[in-house]
């Protein structure tokens, strides 16, 4: 699998011949100024929740690529009102089959409203099982014991976890989350974008390593093999 990082919590994963884009917040992010959203490919766009720093470019990229947007029912309904015809509504529950594999909505401890203030449904994390490998995107979340359920559903090749603190888990809690989901390879997201989530990245990587885990922090625009 290939993962490309677009800054903040935005990234894509290539698996099963498909490209899955997550939480595209690119054009409003000064750190991602060199990323042209018109060049981004996506067959699917998964949205963890409705906050502006996760959906800012979703409509534009979906219209540009024809991608299917997958999100909580209320958020999917909002997307349809923005002119997105291919919106798949979901919620917490059993796995959903797609042509790349399956995706399951899991608990995320956070809030969720849209830029216009309307309710965006439950925030979600996602567990993916694909022929190319399995992975977990936690979305914006605090540490929760519900993460201990995830190994029942998939043996993970990697996990994408927020590490910035303040609005989500910090790096210390992300280490615990990695233990809960039984995955020692973690891609860190949701850090350094705004002052409240600035962190010491070197220390975070050292702390992960001290627990026998690897914290990957790709540069914006970088693609890594996982």
UniProtKB/TrEMBL annotation:
Signal peptide: none annotated. HAMAP family: UPF0173. Residues 7-190 form the Metallo-beta-lactamase domain. PANTHER family: UPF0173 METAL-DEPENDENT HYDROLASE MJ1163 (PTHR43546:SF3), UPF0173 METAL-DEPENDENT HYDROLASE MJ1163-RELATED (PTHR43546). GO terms for molecular function: hydrolase activity. It comes from the Bacteria. Keywords: Hydrolase. NCBIfam families: PRK00685.1. Belongs to the UPF0173 family. It comes from Panacibacter microcysteis. It holds the Pfam family Lactamase_B_3. This is UPF0173 metal-dependent hydrolase I5907_02010.
């Amino acid at each position: 699998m290939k993962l490309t990082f677009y800054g903040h919590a935005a990234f894509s994963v290539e698996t099963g011949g498909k490209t899955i884009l997550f939480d595209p917040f690119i054009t409003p992010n000064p750190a991602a100024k060199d990323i042209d959203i018109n060049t981004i490919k996506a067959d699917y766009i998964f949205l963890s929740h409705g906050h502006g720093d996760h959906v800012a470019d979703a409509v534009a990229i979906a219209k540009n690529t024809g991608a299917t947007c997958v999100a909580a029912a209320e958020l999917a309904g909002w997307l349809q009102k923005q002119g997105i015809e291919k919106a798949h509504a979901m919620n917490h529950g059993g796995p959903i089959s797609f042509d790349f594999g399956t995706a399951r909505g899991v608990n995320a401890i956070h809030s969720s409203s849209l830029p216009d203030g309307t309710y965006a449904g439950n925030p979600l994390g996602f567990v993916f099982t694909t022929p190319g490998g399995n992975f977990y995107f936690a979305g914006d979340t605090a540490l929760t014991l519900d993460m201990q359920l995830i190994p029942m559903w998939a043996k993970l090749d990697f996990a994408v976890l927020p590490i910035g603190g303040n609005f989500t888990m910090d790096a210390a809690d992300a280490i615990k989350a990695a233990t809960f989901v039984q995955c020692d390879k973690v891609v860190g997201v949701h850090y350094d974008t705004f002052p409240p989530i600035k962190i010491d990245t070197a220390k975070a990587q050292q702390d992960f390593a001290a627990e026998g885990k690897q914290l990957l922090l790709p540069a914006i625009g970088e693609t890594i093999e996982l």
